[in-house]
Design a protein that fits this description.
This protein has a single domain, classed as VC0802-like (2-Layer Sandwich), CATH 3.30.2130. It is an alpha+beta fold. The radius of gyration is 16 Å and the shape is globular. Helix 1 packs across helix 2. Strands 1, 2, 3, 4, 5, 6, 7 and 8 form an eight-stranded mixed beta sheet that branches. The protein has two helices and eight strands; from the N terminus they run E-E-E-E-H-E-E-H-E-E.
Length: about 140
Amino acid sequence: MAGSHPLRVLRVPGRFAVCRLSPDDVVPSWANGPGFLSITRTDDELSIVCEDAAVPRRTECMRGYVAMRVEGTLPPELVGVLVALAKPLADAGIPILAIGTHDTDYVLVREVDVERAVDALRRAGHEVDNGQGITFPAKRVN
């Protein structure tokens, strides 16, 4: 179980927006390019998470998100990874958007909450790398 050992969490470079389009919309050309991008279609919406700067002004979205990911490729049988991240963030009152991929899990937090998020993850025993070569080691919990 992931909750029983610390995770290494890496900040993904960039500032992101979480956009909502109509479920029957075509994926727009601005939802493309290198780096972190997530496109999810349901019966109710087309949801796009991408670089904030790429999103046209009049698009329905929430801007100013920071993405963090668990380092490495997680085995599919590993249990509790998202809980290990979500619980300390919830306990700190920090809302998240979680996205899972084939290889790992991502958590997006509002830019205004990043410092508190890093602190909450460190207090939970995780190591957090800010994406600029500065690592915030886990804090010892007495």
